[in-house]
Amino acid sequence: MKLFKTLCLLFATPLVMSQVGIGTTTPETDLHVVGDALIQDAFKVGSLGTVSAADEDFKLITRTTNTTPVGQITVLDVNTLHVAPVNVVNYSFTNISLNNLTDLDLQFDDSKYVVGIANFRYEGDAIKKVVGGATKTIGNFVVRTFTSGGSWHLEIRNRTLDLTPGDTLTYHVTLIIYDKSYYRNLPPIITDLGGSNKGVASSVPNLY
């Protein structure tokens, strides 16, 4: 009789322990956590070899490093994202006053996105060189994105020289838009080279 009871308990144990609930009395999977989760050390995860049509609704689980204490587990819900992690948009600008695209509001929210520039191309009449001291100069040409008023802006222009009246040009530029759910905009690093054309950066960015 004792042996029969022992066997019953052994066979029943996997059924009792097959699902564990934390914060819930009705777990729906092997480990069901209702509430926050905190991982203080690394944890082992499985690899996702391929993604089939049946796997398209999966969520990404991430471990944050800015919680107190560090290690809170959160979900990155890809269904709530309005854009892909990296987006490429091509722009062309014509009929610009002289050559000065001074401040174009791109309307990308700077709290959600990082906007970079690639593949700039200038088509049209050249800016005439002018004498500057003992040499000739073509001015100070700038292509950049910057943030202002909560959105990303674009500047493409020669800050010191203009086109000859009547001349025309077209700017072509590719913008790379990064979603901050995946990427972050690192702070600028300013290094004074003291008039030299070589040196060492003043600091290393914190990538973690």
What does this structure look like?
By secondary structure, the chain is mainly β. The chain contains 1 helix and 13 strands, in the order αβββββββββββββ. The strands form 5 sheets. Strands 3-5-4 form a 3-stranded antiparallel β-sheet, with no helix packed on it. Strands 6-13-8 form a 3-stranded antiparallel β-sheet, with no helix packed on it. The protein has 2 domains: 2-40 and 59-78, no CATH class; 86-179. It is 8% helix and 38% strand.
Helix content: under 10%
Strand order of the largest sheet: 3-5-4
For the record, the count of structural domains works out to 2
The count of strands amounts to: 13
Helix run count: 1
Report the β-strand fraction as a percent range.
35-45%
Our measurement of the CA-to-CA distance between the termini, rounded to an integer number of angstroms, reads 61 Å
Q: Give the radius of gyration.
A: 29 Å
For the biggest sheet, the summary is: 3 strands, antiparallel
Structural shape? elongated
What keyword list fits this structure?
three-stranded antiparallel sheet; 8% helix; mainly beta; 13 strands; 1 helix; 208 residues
Write the layout of secondary structure elements.
Elements: H1 2-17, E1 20-22, E2 31-33, E3 37-38, E4 60-63, E5 72-76, E6 86-93, E7 101-109, E8 113-124, E9 130-132, E10 135-137, E11 141-148, E12 151-158, E13 169-179
Parallel strand pairs: 1-2
Antiparallel strand pairs: 3-5, 4-5, 6-13, 7-12, 8-13, 9-10, 11-12
Q: Short summary of the structure?
A:
It contains one helix and 13 strands, in the order H-E-E-E-E-E-E-E-E-E-E-E-E-E.
